[in-house]
Amino acid sequence: MVWSGLIVFALMLAACDEHGSGGACTLDGRTYNVGDVFPAGDGCNSCSCSASGIACTERACSDGGVDASPFACAPAGGCPNGPVCGGLCCGTGEKCVGDVCACGTGPVCTTGNSCEAAGPIGTDACGSICCGASGPCPL
Question: 3-state secondary structure string, 20-32?
Answer without folding.
Answer: CCCCEEEECCEEE
